[in-house]
Design brief:
Blueprint lengths: L1 H35 L7 H8 L3 H7 L3 H15 L6 H4 L4 H29 L11 H15 L7 H12 L1 H10 L4 H15 L1
Length: 198
């Protein structure tokens, strides 16, 4: 009797592990396709093929596009975390804090550029997928508020807007990719914009 119970437990655990592995393979397949051709051009059939599963299996794990995007976004975020803002909070000088944050964030944008370019381009084309970018927006809002601390003056609204602008992926991409600046030059120009706003 004890042997049968142990056997059933083992089989249940093994089945759960296989299900988790299948879900992971689907998530990774979607993430890789989103990073190379973009979410709007990624079909469910292509994801299933790349993951080595049937479409019915994909639907069993992800019944809608929102759940697939959420899993893909969470997995990508785990592999490519945003820079930790906690050390920035310990920097008393707001200008040094801003430059430190920009240096680390711009290095991050450089690493995730292919995925961010595709996702930002395609998200408006996919109904129900807008929430996939919420984590990025929340992070940028919190970072903006951290970088605003210690900045005095009557032009706080302008400074807040300038900080929000220079943190964005699109700003980094414009300065570095389109205008050909180095990361250091982009950081200095962005910090100068914030200074000018004050």
């Amino acid at each position: 009797m004890s042997t049968q119970i142990n056997k059933r437990r083992y089989e249940k655990r093994r089945r759960a592990e296989q299900e988790a592995e299948t879900r992971r393979r689907i998530t990774v397949a979607a993430m890789e396709l989103h990073g190379t051709i973009g979410p709007a051009r990624t079909s469910l059939s292509a994801i299933a093929d790349r993951a080595g599963v049937q479409r019915a299996t994909l639907y069993r794990h992800f019944p809608d596009i929102q759940s697939l995007f959420a899993a893909c976004s969470a997995h990508y975020g785990m592999l490519n975390p945003f820079p930790d803002p906690a050390p920035w909070a310990a920097i008393g000088d707001p200008d040094v804090r801003l430059r430190t944050a920009l240096e680390e964030l711009y290095a991050h944008w450089e690493r995730v550029e292919p995925m961010m370019t595709n996702v930002i381009r395609d998200i408006p084309l996919i109904r129900g997928a807008e929430g996939a970018m919420q984590r990025r927006l929340d992070y940028l809002d919190a970072t903006r508020d951290l970088l605003l601390k210690g900045r005095a003056g009557g032009r706080r609204r302008r400074v807040r807007a300038a900080i929000a602008h220079v943190l964005m992926f699109e700003t980094w991409r414009s300065l570095v990719r389109e205008q050909g600046l180095s990361r250091r030059e982009a950081v200095e120009l962005a910090a100068g914009m914030v200074d000018a706003a004050a």
